[in-house]
Design brief:
Residues 21-483 form the Aldehyde dehydrogenase domain. Its EC number is 1.2.1.3. The active site is at residue 254. The protein has 499 residues and is of the alpha/beta class. It has two domains: 2-255 and 464-483, Aldehyde Dehydrogenase, Chain A, domain 1 (3-Layer(aba) Sandwich), CATH 3.40.605.10; 260-446, 3-Layer(aba) Sandwich (Aldehyde Dehydrogenase, Chain A, domain 2), CATH 3.40.309.10. Helices cover 38% and strands 21% of the residues. The strands form six sheets. Strands 14-15-16-13-12-18-19 form a seven-stranded mixed sheet, with helices on both faces. It has a six-stranded mixed sheet with strand order 9-8-7-10-11-21, sandwiched between helices.
Length: 499
């Protein structure tokens, strides 16, 4: 549809839309039908330099702006985001392939919640340091200072939400930011920059550059960049973190997961099945915290599979703006190929039992047949050494693993290099807390899955990341501490006295 075509996206720095000097561009596509949405202009190294210089010029003034004044600007941006939720969500659906029923209720609003949280946090004295009386005539006090110019590298699964998760604490702390969205979902970035500008954010405080990994690499390795915040796959994150650490840059890494969802024998069946469905098929499975390893008591096999097969019929792929649609395509052709290959491997090589779904596309209207669709897929009787059980697929592929004892389930759940999320379903809350305490993951849930409010600090263990985002702890990653000892005794003791 012609109404879906978007205006070209250029660069944004110094508070203005800027032309890229590379002379190069790429097209972003609507994943539901593979139609072109917009031309995206690629930043050259010189463009990145110019954006960083803009942020560097803006940093002294912005970092010295009183927190309450920064808070008022960010709160105005929150109001604009909420006011324009529907129009932003519409573009987010076109760009990401998510159903509008999801983007209009989750993506923009959950990002705005985080911006509001940090605006209120700094406005209420959250950046105040500590004071300690060391002895009668000596005190220690601390201050928090911004880091400088920071780089935010976004991901394609929650584009505007992740942009806000990164920029909210960054800007609230007094830093400036160069943000590079994923090349697969870039349309939100200019919109957010313009909302920040309209809210009163000074020129140079939030800037946008576009491009693929080469642009990201140049940006994150730039000597002026003080911190890198990256969301993406583990292999890329390891490279980015290694490069940043070698240059003594601060880093926050939110990487992948292969998260276990453990259902205990006393759990309520419908809750357990609904939890497993949300942990595998929401956002078409393109969620880093997805609980794709579902551990089920062996005695539950018949009942669990029967109820799951009834529920999975309510997964409804279709037109993105149809109110009944709750399942979209994958984000890109290359990702569709990757997920399809995992499903094929599960069938042909792992020889897992295919309970539902499999190869091919779901039944769709003719105008969506060229989109990047896959079928929601469930494998059962899986083993821990299967590739589909070990690797992060990042698609709607559930693996059911049966266990005999709870101790066995916990041991197998922890048998992975990743540790992003984990969860337990049970009526016994005491046992739930004991098991959560044993699970090696940074984000855990009891009798629910996936909710990540602004107040909740989230981050991975093992190879799933470094540091946390959101909550009170989240802003600490954007600050550096200065401690000062004041001696008021009037004398300076010395060991270099005359004997």
């Amino acid at each position: 549809m012609s109404s879906d075509v978007q205006s070209p996206r250029q660069l944004f720095y110094d508070g203005e839309i800027k032309s890229a000097t590379s002379g190069k561009s790429f097209q972003t596509l609507n994943p539901s039908n593979a139609n072109t949405l917009a031309d995206i202009h690629i930043a050259s190294n010189a463009d990145v330099d110019a954006a960083i210089a803009s942020a560097d010029r803006a940093f002294p003034s912005w970092s010295q702006t009183p927190p309450a004044a920064r808070a008022r600007i960010l709160q105005k941006a929150v109001a604009l985001l909420r006011e324009r939720n529907d129009e932003i969500a519409r573009v987010e659906s076109l760009d990401s392939g998510k159903a509008y029923t999801e983007t209009s209720t989750v993506d923009v609003l959950s990002g705005a919640d985080v911006l509001e949280y940090y605006a209120n946090f700094i406005g209420g004295g959250g950046l105040n340091g500590e004071t300690t009386q060391l002895r009668e005539d000596a005190w220690v006090y601390s201050n928090k200072a911004a880091l400088g110019v920071c780089a935010g590298i976004g991901a394609w699964n929650y584009p505007i939400q992740i942009a806000l998760w990164k920029s909210a604490p960054c800007l609230a702390a007094g830093n400036t930011m160069i943000y590079k969205p994923s090349e697969y979902t870039p349309l939100h970035a200019q919109t957010l920059a313009e909302i920040y500008r309209e809210a009163g954010l000074p020129a140079g405080v939030f800037n946008v550059v576009y491009g693929a990994g080469d642009v990201g690499s140049y940006l994150t390795s730039h000597p002026t960049i003080a911190k890198v915040s990256f969301t993406g796959q583990v292999s890329t994150g390891l490279k980015v973190a290694g490069s940043a650490a070698g240059r003594m840059k601060y880093v926050t890494m939110e990487l992948g997961g292969k998260s276990p969802l453990i259902i205990l024998p006393d759990a309520e069946l419908d809750n357990a099945v609904n939890g497993a469905m949300m942990a595998n098929f929401y956002s078409t499975g393109q969620v880093c915290t997805n609980g794709t390893r579902v551990f089920v008591p062996r005695g539950w096999k018949e009942a669990f599979e029967k109820r799951l097969l009834e529920q999975v019929e309510h997964v409804r792929p279709g037109p993105l703006f149809d109110e009944a649609t709750n399942f979209g395509p994958l984000s890109s052709a290359i990702h569709q190929e990757k997920v399809t290959e995992y499903i094929r491997h599960g069938i042909e090589t792992d020889k897992a039992k295919l309970l539902y779904g499999g190869l091919g596309k779901p039944s769709l209207p003719k105008d969506l047949e060229n989109g990047y669709w896959v079928r929601p897929t469930v494998f059962t009787d899986c083993r821990d050494n299967m590739k589909i059980v070990k690797d992060e697929i990042f698609g709607p592929v559930m693996s059911i693993l049966y266990y005999d004892t709870v101790e066995e389930a916990v041991r197998r759940a922890n048998n992975t290099e990743l540790g992003l999320a984990a969860g337990v379903f049970t009526k016994d809350i005491n046992q739930a807390h004991r098991i959560i305490g044993q699970l090696q993951a940074g984000i855990t849930w009891i009798n629910t899955w996936g909710e990540s409010p602004a107040e909740m600090a989230v981050g991975g263990w093992k190879k799933s990341g470094l540091g946390v985002e959101n909550g009170r702890k989240g802003i600490e990653a954007w600050l550096q501490n200065k401690s000062t000892l004041v001696d008021m005794s009037g004398t300076v003791p010395t060991v270099f006295a005359k004997l």
